[in-house]
Amino acid sequence: MRTFDLAPLYRATVGFDQMAEMMDRVLSDNAGAQTYPPYNIEKTGDDAWAIEIAVAGFSDEDLTVEQRENALVISARRADDDADRKYLHRGIATRAFERRFHLADHVRVEAAHHANGMLVIELKREVPEALKPRRIEIQATGNTVAHQIAAE
Asked: What is the reported pLDDT for 95?
């Protein structure tokens, strides 16, 4: 197994500590990677995405979708109403789960839909006007020597 030292990245960048921490977390957490339930992430626009999660066997009441700060948490708990049933083969997993997605800044959940065993969560990035790039006009100064004398 490879190990990466991200210390130079922390020293050489300013304001990117969240990205470095995320890379560190992803690189160190491969052993416990969660595979249930399966999901797709689709880019639906320049600043829009959809997460599709296969949730066969769960009803709308069993599913919970929450956005907490920069995290999206999808969980499911099913009431144990199959106790009186006897299965010869049980291939559809309906065990409880909690799936977490780390969201970038200013990404919010637009909507969630559940149909045909698929939960679709629509996401959109909305950057506030105050944080959008703006052009700064450069003003010409007359004489740099006069500026140096005034500063002393």
From this structure: 84
